[in-house]
Amino acid sequence: MTEEIIISGFGGQGVLSMGKILAYAGIMEDKHVSWMPAYGPEQRGGTANVTVIVSDEVVSSPIVSAYDTAIVLNQPSLEKFEPQVKPGGTIIYDGHSIIQPPKRDDINVYRIDAMEEAARTGNSKVFNMLVLGGFLKVRPIATVEDVVKGLHKALPERHHKLIPMNEEAIRRGMQIIQKMN
Amino acid sequence: MLTKEQLIVPENRIYGKPTLMNETPMHYCPGCSHGVVHKLVAEIIEEMGMEEDTIAICPVGCAVFAYRYVDVDWIEASHGRAPACASAIKRLWPNKLVFTYQGDGDMACIGTGETIHALNRGENIAMIFINNAIYGMTGGQMAPTTLMGMKTATCPYGRQADLHGYPLHITDLAVNLEGTCYVTRQAVNNVANIRKAKKAIRQAFENSLNKKGTSLVEIVSTCASGWKMTPEQANQWMVDNMFPYYPLGDLKNTVVKE
Amino acid sequence: MDNGQKDLVLLKGNEVIAKAAIRYGYDGFFGYPITPQSEVLETLAVDKPWETTGMVVLQAESELASINMLYGAGCTGKLVFTSSSSPGIALMQEGISYMAGNELPGVIVSVGRGGPGLGTIQPGQADYYQAVYGGGNGDYHTIVLAPNSVQEMSDCMGKAAELTFKWRMPVIVLSDGMLGQMMETVELPPYRPRRTEEEIGKLCPWATNGIGLKNRKYNFMSTLELDPAVMEERNQKMAAKYRQVEAEEVDYELYRVDDDTEYLIVAYGISSRISMKAIDLLQETGIKIGMLRPKTLWPFPNKIISQLSERIKSILCVEQCEGQMINDVRLATEGQATVFHSGRSGGMVSSPMEVVEDFKSMARERMSNNWPKGYWMK
Fold this sequence. Notes:
The structure holds three protein chains of three kinds. Chain B is of the alpha/beta class. Chain B is 37% helix and 18% strand. Chain B is built from ten helices and nine strands. In chain C, strands 3-2-4-5-7-6-13 form a seven-stranded mixed β-sheet, sandwiched between helices. In chain C, strands 10-12-11-14-15 form a five-stranded mixed β-sheet, with helices on both faces. Chain C is of the alpha/beta class. The chains are: A alpha/beta, B alpha/beta, C alpha/beta.
């Protein structure tokens, strides 16, 4: 099993940390992982993306030409990465952030209204965990239990009290993701 | 009459070369201040019993060969970088006496950045600054501290503000930096001044050991060759021209004597 | 973490440089922030090793000061390192020459980005010449290690610490922005105590730290030698040492190379990772291609390249620049193979598919049987 994932959106949406938690979840499953951010001077509000590879094999190249899954959280990211999803692959987009949904019919298109859900519950900080939950629903590369273990590893001790809230968001994300084609 | 052998006996001895100074003939020109300052440094290290706990850093410039004359461990830094070199060493060897010995070109021109930042960080080092207002080693070119109107090989018609800018008062700058604990300007042109200079260097060395911050001891010096004078003329020229511009005395001393 | 028996953590390459240095018993770090390696100093600042191992950490005023801090520390026999990126390493060249000239230990981590000049802050491998041939003056070499994973970033800090004292010469760990910024699992080394002053006294009798001065002649560090005959002697002594390093310290790795291998990729660092994927893709289509990855760039694995060149007639040199290591590869083939270039530059990084495409054009050239000896192309 090798899952090559791109997560892309605005800085501040939790793109990099979502990737990190996913990578940690992979480690919990005894998988090899790599996490490669596009870095730059941009901070909050700029573009951010990260390539995460989770594999049974040693990861060779941390950058790839095509992805198994693209998680796109703003319009420019969708336009950039939709063409790079492998045929038969998966694209997940946030319903609120994307105006022009994906058009390809040779890939699995999923929509998750995570932004709306986060706004509804009044906790915008769990946005990325809702999306992560959606991803795990359609690409079950790690169990929720392992993701929670990963959260323990990824978050500093002082934030561990927030883990139940994040776990809840992951489970909620699994419920609200919808297949669009 | 007493013979030479009868006369030269330990009980008659009133002055001696410090044992840390070796027999290597000095390359300095007659009348140069470097030799006197070297001797003071050797005497003080010996008096403090710090031979095995001294790390000395010499510059590029006339004192580039300082390591040849005083028997302690020496490092010759690249041009201007002695303060950076000394900063690292003192932090890694906090109980050692660490000092730099630099000229005006090294300290106040090519190495100004390293000088200011070492002083400002309050590194527990002593810095001895030989200011003779000229580049001696390369043959008498303009220094950052060359006086206005003073002639050198690269300002042959005299230093002019519009062409060359003004002399840099790096010692005065050091006073305003929070990291410095002791800033003083001395000379070694007569016995009284040599004694004062020795006291100043000793205090700077003690400050390094006691971790009081950075000490800067400027020695206003002669360069008879560079100034194209006899040693005697050079001493007089220094008194008449350098001292009014670079007045001697303590500029800052925050260390309370215990 | 419970993951088999190993204590595996997920870290960025730059973070690993810092954490591994603390654990390998480094005495100090001196450096100046520059993208994409600032996490090295940031990690050290967070981990506060001065409170645990006693390691000194100082943010210098410039790279110029950093390298001269390294120089001073090396003179006294301490194990210290700095890290920087391309333009910062350029500023350090004078100091590296002084360190080499005085035969001093010191580790320099170079996290490359696109150049020249200020360039970009994106990953690059355009500093091969800078690291391997050096920009400092005079007859000198530095050992250059080339990690290709976050784990190897850690391992190289240990290896560099060993080699820099063994041979008394600066060691450069040549990485790039991608290895610095990416996270992978890493097993950090166990804590190794820093050397005591007594141990330094015994191990480094040449050092200028005053230890034992009363029972020896004073030590001094100077690169100035006005007598050219004496300077030549010093150079000849260093050259003899360099020949010994070349004989003993070459390190490389082969990937999918066997007796049937028809094509060879030579790549180091991040390019070797990208090439592994490209090789896997090509092997799936039945092409017999493997890779030689130099783990030391100086000394360079000339011998094995020469041996492989006897039977492999075309080599693709993959590097993220317009072609630097390719010249060393060509020299190493001794004219027995033709070497082609593949790679992006200026901060762009090849994808595995781009390497595959470059391979295909190389193969087409080979089929056409139409290339002059020593010809190389993009």
